[in-house]
Structure formats: C-alpha cells, structure tokens
C-alpha cells in the first residue's frame, strides 16, 4: 500500500464523522408535524454502523440530532460507551439559513441541553443540518462560539442548490466570526478541479462514486499532508429505508440511490485508512500562524 498521510501507516489520521438522524429527518418534504407517524429506524441502523466500526477498530465523531437523543435516550450512552465522540447536530434538522437568530439559538440550546445530560464527555463540536451555514447566516457562527463550542463542521467548500460556500478553505482552518470570536472549522473534503470543487467523501457522493476514485482522492489528501473528512449517515446502511412518494428524480437519487453500497465501501475504507474523531484531530492541529484564518462574510 502506498504510504500517505491518513492511511494505516501514517501519523495523522483522517476524520470520520456520522450524522445521527433518522431517515425522515433529512426528507424536506416530510414536515416535523408528521414525524410522530414515521417509523423509527435510527437505533438499529446506528447499531449496524457501530458494529462495522467496532470490527475495524475505528472511532468517529457522532453528530447527534437532539430529536433523536430525546426519543432514544439510550443511544448517546451506547455510542459514547464504544469510544466515540458525541457532538451536536442541532435539535430539529432545520436549515440554519431559514431560521431567525433567536430560533437558531433556541434549537442549539435545546440540543446541547439534551446531549449534555446524556453524554459523559463535553460537547465541543457542531454540524448544521444539510451544511446550511452559508453566507446567508454568518451570525450562526457567533452563536456557536457564545455557546462555548470549540469547532464547527458546517461549511461545505462547494456549491449546490441547498448549501455551499465554494471559496471557503478546503482544509481545517481557524474561523474568525464577525465579532472576533474563533472556532476551528473542519470542512468536508472536496477535490479542486478547474471548474469547481468536487465532493467525494460522504453521502450521495460516496455512494455513487466508484471505490477506486474515493481511494485515489483520500491518498491525494494524504500526500498533501491534510487529513480528509469523511461523513456518513445511519440510514445509508438501510437498504430497506422507507420510500417516500412524489419526490423529484434528483431527490429520489439523493435518498435512495445505491443504499447497499456502504456495506462494502465503508469496511474497505476502514481497512485501508486510519480514522479518528474530530476532537482528537482538534488537539493535533497546528495553532497560531500555521492554521489558516478565514471569515465568512
């Protein structure tokens, strides 16, 4: 195997992250008022993922949705008890840029209170639903810093119809807020091509792209000396994920295309590359002038 930063032979691992949400939380066409009528599948799908990580000896950061923690209070202790880091995914999986500042603050506080009561370790990180901290809501970063969080992982350095800040740094950086506060930002990994930044390391991108391409991309990150950030969701380990009618073709692809791929791809990635929780990478990052500084404005 070719030596590279972030593989099994290197000192700096890649980051492995999990967004703990149920299948219906990410379907924008399902209103929160309808959630109680949806079948809960997050516990068995998360257990399936935990077993996969345990078999590989891998640990990750689990960004847990507050609504999940509230409905399944046994889940956070079960995740943490297997050596994983607990972080915050908000409460109701709402797009940050659709909220008022007071609504975002309340959503964050509700989730942090739930997770703080269930987890033994401190909650240090946050990830917005659908990577939805963009130039439409830079104020959200000040609210995160005010809450005492140390890092964020919500800014995607690409552009889609739903999210993205394409000119954001593609490596971990120091995020300076409008009021002068600071957070470390861990962006999901993208490859720079002449036309645009191309995602490859999570969600629909990881499911659809061939394994050889993902492996090549991770090795490319390793040669550059930067850890890659991979993200997965428990529903992606559920080929029997309930189908929602009336979705557009792009939305059907997003939610259902190649759901079985993760049962093969993720164990292969865990066998070939070294991964760690974001909290551990946070402690190993260079500080001061060595870490790029950037402001969302």
Report on this model:
The protein is α/β, with parallel strands linked by helices. It has a single domain, classed as TIM Barrel (Alpha-Beta Barrel). Helices cover 33% and strands 14% of the residues. The protein contains 10 helices and 12 strands. The protein has helices at 42-56, 66-71, 75-80, 101-118, 139-146, 203-208, 211-224, 249-256, 262-272, 278-284, and strands spanning 14-20, 61-64, 85-88, 125-126, 151-152, 173-176, 182-185, 190-192, 197-199, 229-232, 275-276, 293-294. The strands form 3 sheets. Strands 1, 2, 3, 10 and 11 form a 5-stranded parallel beta sheet that branches. Strands 4-5-7-6-12 form a 5-stranded mixed beta sheet, sandwiched between helices. Helix 4 (101-118) packs parallel to helix 5 (139-146). The chain starts with 13 loop residues before the first strand and ends with a strand.
CATH superfamily: Glycoside hydrolase/deacetylase
**Number of separate helices:** 10
What is the helix content?
25-40%
Number of E strands: 12
> pLDDT below 50 for ≥5 consecutive residues: which ranges?
1-5
How many domains in all?
1
Name the CATH architecture.
Answer: Alpha-Beta Barrel
Which radius of gyration do the C-alpha atoms yield?
A: 18 Å
Main sheet overview:
5 strands, parallel
What is the element string, with H for helices and E for strands? EHEHHEHEHEEEEEHHEHHEHE
| Strand content bin | 5-15%
CATH class, please? Alpha Beta
The secondary-structure class comes to: alpha/beta
